[in-house]
Amino acid sequence: MTKKTRTILFTIGLVFFILAAPSLILYSQGYRIDFAARKIVQTGAFYFKISPKNVDIYLDDELSKKTSSITGSTMIGDLAPKIYGVEIKKDGYRSWQKNLDIKEKEVTEAKDIVLFPQNINFTVAEQKPKIIISATSSDGEKIVEYNDHEISVKFLEDRNDPVQRKGGDKIFLARFSENLGTVFWLNNYYLIFNAGNKIKIAEIDDRNEINIIDVAEFENPKIFWDKSEKRLYVSSQGKLYLSDRLLP
Q1: What is the pTM of this model?
Q2: Which of 11, 83, 181, 206 is deepest in the core (most CB within 10 A)?
Q3: Residue 210 in contact with residue 97, Cβ under 8 Å?
């Protein structure tokens, strides 16, 4: 290779480096080109914490990541700002779906997600439950309000979490044509109740649509949530039934 050829190649490499360096620096700082909007934007991220552990997270119908088998959490970064269709799946469990927004330089959290078993078995109970009914959640931050057909949750104090509620805020969860029975706090972020003959679980995260699932169906049920055992008692047609554990 002649000296002239080496000089030409060095010059080309130098020019390429000078042109590429700003792009590499911007990329390393989280900047991306939004071709649809024809502008440069900074990326954001999702943080998930889910029970059970080791679940699949899909963004816009594409598998993105699994949660940790140790902590049940994960961070998904370098995401362009927009609304993503999020679906969380695990074999044997009901999926969780919601549209969540990514904003520039921000982390969007969804850290109190529970996936419930696809099939929940009930057996005849051998003893009656010792039940305490409370309208207030265990963390003392929320109170459930309901009548024959509607359920709402009122926040008693400010919350620094994904929902970002202030004390006094109220969210309307759902209205049902069937009469509601007693509503229990399943944990601090989910409610369990019966609407007519169907037993349901509802989340309280009202971003996009609220996930409500049907757990079981009994004739004229009366339900009782055993918080310590994390199992549901159902009284129906003179018999008392007991569910599998609903929470880890």
Answers
A1: 0.82
A2: 181
A3: no
Q: What is the CATH number of domain 43-114?
A: 2.60.40.10
DSSP state of 192: E
> What gap in Å lies between CA 18 and CA 150, rounded to an integer?
63
Count H helices, E strands: the chain? 1, 20
200: CB partners within 8 A, 6+ apart? 192, 193, 194, 212, 213, 214, 215
Q: What is the residue type of 129?
A: P
Is CATH 2.130.10.10 correct for 122-243?
A: yes
Helix (H, G, I), strand (E, B) or coil at 41: strand
DSSP string, 154-175: EESS---STT---TT-EEEEEE
Q: What is the pLDDT of residues 167-206, one digit of tens each?
A: 889 999 999 999 999 999 999 999 999 999 999 999 999 9
Which tens digit of pLDDT belongs to each residue from 58-72? 999 999 999 999 999
pLDDT tens-place string over residues 97-153: 999 999 998 999 999 999 999 999 999 998 888 777 889 999 999 999 999 999 999
Domain residue spans of the chain: 3-30, 43-114, 122-243
